[in-house]
Specification:
heterodimer; A: 112 residues; four-stranded antiparallel beta sheet; globular; B: 117 residues; mainly beta; six-stranded mixed beta sheet
Chain lengths: 112, 117
């Protein structure tokens, strides 16, 4: 079974802090994704990566950056956290051009 | 840009009954894929069913089936013999095939399904 893990289930940070969210997958998938999930808005794509060191902006990249130094790990970085970044963050991975995405359990981030 | 619309924020169904969740999408593409994902309370999102747009036959997975109407851009999910474990948020998603990079999913806003005794 594909396993996608995220470093924390719950995280509380203060405004202005730098925040790192980590995601690791164990199935050698080339594609990895970061979404945020908000009530009434569904899932929105922040950034994705299709290879090591390769990244592409999603629909809402403002205020975020990403890093992919190793194939199995994809990090989401909030350079200076703000209260409007309080949300559930979901990581996913996939292989090939059009295969299903496998999701991690999510990190619920609260920025105070 | 593609959009996916789920017009039913919440639905309820009794155990053993059948329920249909609606989804419509807007695209000018001809080659694409559609998915239904399920997110149980406090648990991970998992794939329920997938449909390739070039296939006329509707996809089925055990108690789950879809009604794919390409011309109408409609992709509804039917759950037969509903079980308590089907209680979850259901998301409809659209994927346009891309080469040379990852194919992205565009999600609807979700339908919260409650299965009751």
């Amino acid at each position: 079974d594909v396993k996608v893990t995220q470093s924390s289930r719950y995280l509380v940070k203060r405004t202005g802090e730098k925040v790192f969210l980590e995601c690791v997958q164990d199935m050698d998938h080339e594609n990895m994704f970061w979404y945020r999930q908000d009530p009434g808005l569904g899932l929105r794509l922040i950034y994705f990566s299709y290879d090591v060191k390769m990244k592409e902006k999603g629909d809402i990249p403002e205020g975020y950056s990403v890093s992919r130094e190793k194939k199995e790990r994809f990090s989401l970085i909030l350079e200076s956290a703000s209260t409007n970044q309080t949300s559930m963050y979901l990581c996913a991975s996939s292989s090939g051009d059009y295969n299903e995405q496998f999701f991690g359990p999510g990190t619920r981030l609260t920025v105070l | 840009a593609q959009t996916v619309t789920q017009s039913q924020p919440e639905m309820s169904v009794q155990e053993a009954e059948t329920v249909t969740l609606s989804c419509t999408y807007d695209t000018s593409e001809n080659n694409y894929y559609l998915f239904w994902y399920k997110q149980p309370p406090s648990r991970q999102m998992i794939l329920v069913i997938r449909q390739e747009a070039y296939k006329q036959q509707n996809a089925t997975e055990n108690r789950f089936s879809v009604n794919f109407q390409k011309a109408a851009k409609s992709f509804s999910l039917k759950i037969s013999d509903s079980q308590l474990g089907d209680t979850a948020m259901y998301f409809c998603a659209f994927m346009k095939r891309r080469t040379g990079t990852a194919s992205k999913l565009t999600f609807g806003t979700g339908t919260r399904l409650q299965v009751t005794l």
